[in-house]
Structures are given as C-alpha cells and as structure tokens.
C-alpha cells in the first residue's frame, strides 16, 4: 500500500471528506485519509440549512424538511417562526459521510486507511505519521480533521477548545405531536442541561429528541447526560406530552467542541472541523461552518502546491480568510463574561419573549445562522427592566390568588 502522499487527512467526517473530495477531484495530487474505524451509528441527527445541503450535493441525505422553527423555555416562554419555503432540514449525518466516501473511493488518487494515527514527526520536506497498526505515512501536507481527538493539538501541546457540548438523545416512534412538523430548540437549564435540548419531528410519528450539557472538558460521563435526558423527557413540557406513548429505538451520544482554537495552521499542517472547534458557538450548528472552512482549506492547499510553499506563513492565509468571515461573530459569543449556555432560566425567558419574538422570519434565520440582528445594549436593558417588572407583578398576582384559595378553604 502507498505510504507517501501529497496530502494526508486524519479524520473522515464531513470536514475531512470535503477537503479530500475537492483536492482529489480538482487536482492530480495524491490524497490519503485515515479514520480509526467504521462509522458508528451513534451520531445525533443534525439540523442545518436546506440550501447548504443542496449546494454540497447532500440533499438526498435529508430525512425531514421544515418551514417553521420553535424555541421554548422550561417556563413555557415560546417563539415560533414560519417561513415561505423549507429553510431547515434534518440530515442523516452518517449517510452523508458514507455518500462522500463512496464517491471518493472510485478516485485513483485517493487511498483510505482504517487505522488510528498515534504519533507525528516533522522532517525537512515532509511529515511522518505512525499509526496503531504500524503504518508509517509520509506526507507533504497534513490536514487534521480528527474531531475531538485533537490529534495535532495533543501532539504539539496547542490550545484546544475550552467548551464542549455533550449530548444524549434517542430516536422515538409513536410520537403524538407531528401535525405541524416543527423542529424545536429547548433553552438551556441547569436542571436538565446547560446545552439545552431539541425535538426534531421526522414524518408522522417519529422524532429525534435529546439534551446536552456544556462543560470545559472533552471527557464527561455519558451516564450523567443520559440521566438528565431521562428526567427531561418525563418532566419538560410539551416534550413529555409528545412522548407519552413513544417508543425509543436508537440512543445517540456525542461530543462537539463549541469554541474555536487560536491557531489553525503550522508548517505543513492545517486544522479544520471539530478539531478546530468550528461549530457555531451560539447554537452548536456545525454542518455549514465546517463545510465552508474545509472549502477554504482546499483552496489554500491548491495555492500552496502551485507556489511549492508549505510554511506556516503561507498556509496561514486559511486562518486569515476564516477570520474575515467568522471571527467577529464567534468572538461576540466566546468573549462574553457569562457564556450564553449558563444564563439563568429567566434570562432565556426574556430572550425568547422580548428578543426572538420581535424578529421577522428572515431576521430569525440570520440570527440562527450568523448570530446577527442583535438588540442594541440600551434597548436590551430597557426591555429587561420592563420584563422583570412584568414578572414581578405576575408572581405577586399569583401569590394573592393562592392566598385567596386558602382562605376559601378555611
């Protein structure tokens, strides 16, 4: 088997496969991909944008299409938007990866290794990679798309993402609510999950449901996330109603980095996808930003081979191009003193009632996609004060009502 490549990719998720597709199909460069094993089925259903899946030829991997979206809190604050067309879609992530891999396997420029990279060594004109199966690979350029394995960061002591979303869910049949076919995001709660939850209806009586916990470690007990999930589907309205007679069929557990790393390139190395923490930190959507980032990687690689320059100073144009598009938006979330995932529940009630409900459908799409159309600080503070006054009077009225009932009972 070949052991010398122009481009070698560690990780065969959408990021790695898309880079491989663009390089193998558009150049004569030799490409190798290493993935540690067969794809498991333990990936949550991913929701993303219809136009992205069409653009990348993945629309045949869609399992549901949506022309509405709902956000609600544990206190039943609710924001629902309807769109003229199907804007969102639920993607079968494993099917999408399998499709890209099948397309690549017919390309003579590409070789796939079912193995796991174990160590890396830089030489003058190439990078040497050793694997657990004792493969010794040499490559002119290495792409780290290893996801939460963070292959390059672990081997070079680089900074890794500081926040990770650990999600547990299940695919249910015999659900009760699917008349309007609206996907839902559940605001975060320290009781059930700081990462919030989701309810994605599939067809007439099926749904993907899950909850997540945000931590500062890539390692977190699956059993704890599962415990919170099981409590939530019993106690959180209206999900508990939807699942009253539902039957679980396939559990799902996964971890997603939600904070971008500081350094995306080294000499002869580029880092992309979850290994770089490129999922959007405001809602953990990773399909679009990861595919867009891998497009930039492929473009810079082609330029590097034309110039025969694989230095960090040349490859860094990948990070520069990524930052022009994304840095301001990502930093707006990551640099906040209080991360959005750890907001108190009444703050989420405020965001839903006073912020999301004020957006038009197009503005809601832009908020979801780019975290844009944000309220000016002065207006948000004024609305927050009015909201707290409203809640205070509402609770005061409720307490009076309870006292009156007790008096009547006496």
Task: Describe what this molecule looks like in 3D.
The chain is of the alpha/beta class and 410 residues long. It folds into 3 domains: 4-42 and 92-159 and 259-332, FAD/NAD(P)-binding domain (3-Layer(bba) Sandwich), CATH 3.50.50.60; 46-91 and 162-257, D-Amino Acid Oxidase, Chain A, domain 2; 345-409, no CATH class. Helices cover 37% and strands 26% of the residues. It is built from 12 helices and 18 strands. It has helices at 14-26, 50-55, 93-104, 151-156, 222-235, 239-242, 287-307, 312-315, 317-334, 345-355, 361-370, 377-409; strands at 4-10, 31-35, 46-49, 62-66, 68-72, 78-82, 88-91, 110-114, 117-122, 127-131, 136-144, 164-173, 184-186, 196-202, 206-215, 247-257, 265-266, 269-271. Strands 1, 2, 8, 9, 10, 11, 17 and 18 form an 8-stranded mixed sheet that branches. It has a 7-stranded mixed sheet with strand order 6-5-13-14-15-12-16. Strands 3-7-4 form a 3-stranded antiparallel sheet. Strand 5 and strand 6 (78-82) form a beta hairpin. Helix 1 (14-26) runs parallel beside helix 3 (93-104), helix 1 runs parallel beside helix 7 and helix 7 (287-307) packs antiparallel against helix 9 (317-334). The longest helix has 33 residues, at 377-409. The chain is globular.
């Amino acid at each position: 088997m070949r052991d010398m490549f122009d481009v070698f990719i560690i990780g065969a998720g959408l990021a790695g496969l898309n880079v491989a597709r663009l390089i193998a199909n558009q150049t004569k460069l030799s490409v190798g991909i290493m993935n540690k094993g067969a794809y498991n089925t333990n990936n949550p259903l991913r929701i993303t944008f219809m136009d992205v899946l069409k653009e990348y030829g993945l629309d045949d991997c869609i399992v549901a299409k949506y022309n509405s979206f709902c956000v609600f809190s544990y206190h039943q604050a609710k924001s629902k938007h309807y769109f003229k067309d199907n804007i969102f879609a639920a993607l079968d992530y494993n099917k999408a990866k399998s499709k890209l891999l099948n397309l690549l396997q017919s390309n003579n420029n590409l070789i796939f290794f079912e193995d796991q990279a174990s160590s890396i060594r830089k030489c003058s004109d190439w990078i040497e990679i050793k694997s657990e199966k004792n493969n010794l690979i040499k490559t002119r350029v290495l792409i780290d798309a290893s996801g939460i394995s963070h292959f390059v960061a672990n081997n070079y002591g680089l900074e890794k993402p500081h926040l990770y979303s650990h999600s547990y869910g299940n695919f249910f049949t015999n659900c009760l609510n699917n008349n309007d076919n609206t996907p839902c995001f559940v605001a975060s709660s320290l009781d059930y999950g700081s990462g919030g939850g989701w309810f994605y209806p599939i067809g007439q009586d099926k749904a993907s449901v899950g909850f997540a916990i945000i931590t500062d470690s890539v390692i977190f007990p699956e059993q704890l996330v599962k415990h919170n999930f099981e409590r939530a589907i019993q106690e959180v309205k209206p999900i508990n109603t939807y699942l009253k007679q539902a039957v679980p069929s396939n559990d799902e557990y996964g971890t997603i980095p939600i904070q971008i790393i500081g350094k995306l390139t080294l000499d002869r190395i580029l880092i992309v996808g979850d290994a770089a923490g490129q999922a959007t930190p405001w809602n953990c959507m990773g399909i679009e930003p990861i595919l867009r980032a891998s497009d930039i990687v492929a473009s810079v690689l082609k330029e590097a081979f034309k110039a025969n320059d694989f230095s960090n100073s040349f490859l860094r144009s990948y990070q520069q191009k990524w930052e022009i598009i994304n840095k301001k938006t990502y930093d707006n979330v990551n640099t906040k003193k209080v991360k959005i995932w750890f907001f108190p529940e009444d703050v989420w009630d405020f965001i839903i009632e006073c912020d999301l409900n004020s957006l038009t459908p197009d503005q809601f799409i832009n908020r979801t996609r780019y975290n844009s159309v944000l309220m000016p600080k002065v207006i948000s503070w004024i609305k927050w004060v009015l909201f707290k006054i409203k809640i205070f009077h509402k609770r005061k009225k409720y307490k009076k009502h309870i006292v009156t009932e007790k008096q009547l009972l006496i």
